[in-house]
Every structure is written in C-alpha cells, then in structure tokens.
Here is the input.
Amino acid sequence: MIKSLIDKILGKTPAKKRTSTAGGRSAKTPRIPTGKRVDVPASEHGIDVSLVDDRARKVVETLQEAGYEAYIVGGAVRDLILGHRPKDFDVATNATPEQVKGLFRRAFIIGRRFRIVHVVYGRGREHEVIEVSTFRAYLDANAAEQVAGNEKTSRKDLADKTHVVDASGRVLRDNVWGPQDQDAARRDFTVNAMYYDPHTGVVVDYHGGIKDAKKRVLRMIGDPETRYREDPVRIIRVVRFAAKLGFDIEPKTREPLQNMAELLANVPQSRLFDEMIKLLQTGHAQASLDQLRKQGLDRGVFPILDAVFDEARRHPGRDQFVQLALADTDRRVSEGKPVAPSFLLACLLWHDVLEHWKRNQAQGEPPFPALQSATDAVFDARIGDISGRGKLAADMREIWTMQPRFDRRSGNGPLTLVEQPRFRAGFDFLRLRAAANEADPELAKWWEDFSLADNNERRDLMDVARQQDLAKRQARVASGDTESAGAGDAPAKKRRRRRRKPAGEGGGAPVSAGGDAGGDAD
Here is the structure.
C-alpha cells in the first residue's frame, strides 16, 4: 500500500496484475499444479512388458530415434499399472503434429479442439490406430480468448486461434504446446497423468498417480470446479472411470458433481452422445448406471437414459428387458465380441417406441406408418440432432420392424427374413424379448433352429410351425376365445385366401387396396 501511495505521488503507473482479454474479462497468471516429477523404475511399478502393444512401442522408438521425447501416456499406463491389457494405446511427445506426421508413412492430423495425429497400422478390421498428442501448456481459462457461442455458432471467431473458451469457461481450443510437467497438469485425473517409457522401463509420475491407482482412488488434478468448468464432460468421465475401474471418487473430486452438471447443457449433443455410448459399451453398463444414480446424475444428463430412469413409466417388464440388454452388452464386451450402438439403443428405447406405436395405431394409423412415426417421435425426443443419426435410425428401425415378422412362419417369409443382413440383430432382440417374457420362448427357439438348419430341415421346421399354429387356433376356438383365435396367424391365412378367391372363381375382379394394406408391411 505504501509503495502504491509513493507511486501515485510521483505519478508512476502501477503494473497491472490482470490484463484484459478479448472477452472483456480479466486474466491473471495461472497457478500451475505441476506437481513434482518422480521417475519410478520398473522394479517399483511392476508393469508387465508383455502387456505393452508392439506398435505403440514402435511409435515411441521412432520418435525417440528422431530426437524427440516420447512416452506411452494416459489410460494405457493406468491399466498397465493395474495389471490389465489396455484396449487402446496413446503416445505423448514434444514433437509437433506436423513433425510427427513426417515420421510415419500412414499418419493423419485430425481435430480442431485438440490437434492430434493418428498413426495407422494395418488395414480393414485388423487395423490399429496409435493416437499421438503433443505436450500441451497449462493455460488458465481466464487468460484465454472468449467467444459468445460454441463450436458451431462461432466457427469464424475460432479460426486460427489456439486457446479459446466459451462464456462458461469451457475450452473450445487448446493447441498451445508446452513442457511435459504442464501437459501432466492439464490432464484430468492423477491416474491418467503418468508417462511410460518402454525403452527404459521408467514411469514418470508428477501427481502420485501410481499411489492413487494402487489405492483405487480417482482424484482430480488441481481445483475440481475449475477443471469441470474447463471441460464439463469430465463429470461423465469420472462416473465412467469409477464404474469401469471399481474406484472410489475422492471427496473433493466428487462434491461439485451435482451442482456443476448444468454445465453439460453447453456441450454439443454429438459429444455427449459419444460419451453416453462409452458409458454403456465399455463392459460395465450396469455399474455405470448405478454410479449415475449414486452421484445424482441419473436425470437430465442423457435424454436416452431419462427414458430408462423415468420412475413414472417404469414397470417390471420394462426394467427386466433393460437389465437383460445391459447384461448382454457387458457379456459381449467381456468376450471380445463387437457391440453395435444401434442394438443397445434399440433396447433402451423399445418401450418408448412401443407406447407411441400402439397409440398411433389406436388413432387409426396403419401398422408400418405408425411404427415409422413412432420412431421419428422418439428420436426427436431422446436423441436429437447428432452426426450419423440417419444410419443409426435406419438400423434401429430395421431391428424393430423385424419383430412382427418373426410371428409369421409360413410361406416364403421365413426364408426371406433369415437372409436379411440385420437378421442376427433382429433375432438377438427377439431372444431378449423372450427372456423378458415379452415374446414366446418357443418362437425364439424355433428361429434359432431355423437359422442354423439346412434347406430340408427348414421345410420340416415350417411344417412343425404350421401344425403348432393350427393347434393353437383350435385350442382358442374350443375355449371360446374367438377374438384371439382370429388375431394370431389366422388373419394372414384369411387375407391370402381372400386375395386368391377372385382368381379362383374366375371373376377377374381386382384385389382391393384395403386387402393389400392388410398384408405384409415390410
């Protein structure tokens, strides 16, 4: 204060502690939580080198031989510390994206928000991508340029800029290169901020990540509220990692979650959708939903999951079906089998579609148009405008429209259906419905046998199906349930009989439009 008074008397201008940014906010030099570098040898961290991917090791060696620093980084190191074989390997280096790209035959610079390089090995389904990122500087959001909109609405303002945030402090651009200690500081959790050199066997640890990994604790680097504001998707990531790894969330990291969940409204729908898919398709779907509930994030975050958590619309059948679908997805992931997002989403939204479908038909819409409009309504309400929506909707609609076709086991219908490209997905959906008592288990067993049979066996199965259907109709008639007797497979036979009758009688009368509309809608 005395110095300020003297400066004022002498007419000196005091140095500014804050500088004005483009957004009109003041900025200060950030306190960087760089931590202290600790080089942990192989004798202490215990990583099994046989779990390290050869191609990731090759990328590191290529960069090091060219004179750059390079390490395996992030979740791969965390999984190696835990004794797991990582699914993906990322590499961090002090080489710029352009320098990385120049060292590899098949390398591509991608991304705007974070510019990274994909180094590609192999082709087709057997290809592998090693993601290479450049060490980034830790920059306080207060020191960044600010735009009023987001990635889509402010594209012109974002052009040629390296560090930009939106009005809430969410980072839209982060492409300022820096030293390794700052790169570690800007990562989210301590267990994701370790660097492994496969050549020397050393793990570089700035924030006690090895200790937290062994204690099975998720701890945010720096101030949790600031870090969530920089990237609200971290709110979802902490839930996903807690579920996937079975870790506890450190209290200071956990406390702001509910209050800051509203920041997710600023995140693009497509990115939130991708995070939700990761949440459900990493082999721990049920545990992820349990964590969402535990942290108070089970409503208002993902519209699709709102359909699952909606207490007012829950009933035992719906819950059982969803539980079976999640368990089936987890099982397939654990067995290394592919999991299509369209299948799981078709399961989660099935009862929403079913309700709309029934309502549309009750209002007089024909079955197939009623299903189409039901699908569109549910997509608008639960999924919104995301990239790839058209393909996703087409796959899901195909799964749903197969369900009534499974009831028809005569004529050429079964032979045509079993050859459909999406038959297996549709059948797996039927199988889940049968397990949840929404469909006849005998029907699911018949279709499984039919799909595996040769031509002669298929004809025998169709004969058996005709006899079973006839016996069911006769039983319903004998019990006096004439309405049900006319609501099963009988209408299809009656419609076919009515269509053939004019030609059989020689009348030559044209088939009515109403008769066609009542036939197969697929």
